[in-house]
Amino acid sequence: xxxxxxxxxxxxxxxxxxxxxxxxxxxxxxxxxxxxxxxxxxxxxxxxxxxxxxxxxxxxxxxxxxxxxxxxxxxxxxxxxxxxxxxxxxxxxxxxxxxxxxxxxxxxxxxxxxxxxxxxxxxxxxxxxxxxxxxxxxxxxxxxxxxxxxxxxxxxxxxxxxxxxxxxxxxxxxxxxxxxxxxxxxxxxxxxxxxxxxxxxxxxxxxxxxxxxxxxxxxxxxxxxxxxxxxxxxxxxxxxxxxxxxxxxxxxxxxxxxxxxxxxxxxxxxxxxxx
Length: 275
Known about the structure:
CATH architecture of the largest domain: Alpha-Beta Complex
Mean pLDDT: 91
Largest sheet: 6 strands, parallel
CATH topology of the largest domain: inorganic pyrophosphatase (n-terminal core)
Low-confidence stretches: none
Number of helices: 8
Radius of gyration: 18 Å
Strand content: 15-25%
Helix content: 25-40%
CATH superfamily of the largest domain: inorganic pyrophosphatase (n-terminal core)
Structural class: alpha/beta
Distance between the termini: 42 Å
Number of strands: 12
């Protein structure tokens, strides 16, 4: 599959990337290197988030990809990349509602993360410590330490296999552990103080100013843990565009997000729309 791809090869994830998207980039880069590929570039329209470390010497570029072969990871739709792309050779993803935009679409909706999907595809002989660490970080991040409702028994089995191959659990937890500065802790408090819960036990936060993505994610995770809460919705107004994040334990928020051309998973989804 990958051996036949002509070089250079450009790997692309969605803009405003999370741990799963970034670790999928690095994981796929390591896989390609291990099968002899040398000309590999990594791309994310919004760059490497400051809370996520670099896992190789390859810089993640904000510029459009120019490789002869283009591969996306963790993108439900080609528009999620933020780049104007017409052709994608391979589309690796795990989101419900993936639009099958690649020449080859490898989509596993039962996988809790794209790194879990990639781990299952990588030959056992190539599963080195770095690939194990990247796979584990993506899985633990997207499943909130194996606690999200879409975490299935197959994911636990995958984690067990990774740990049997290489003991990376402590390293993964250290990387994923929130490291908040004083300013960021205040920002988290500001967001939570603006939250409201209506009579139907739906939590809302509407933000008129920009907050870091990791702080927004922490805020909505906290709100979704409130007793008797049915769903939470965080809306952020940025220059006339609304970015929405939805979480729930009982409601299919993916269907709600799709009404605004967004998507994700039944219990966690997002969208972006013009006001």
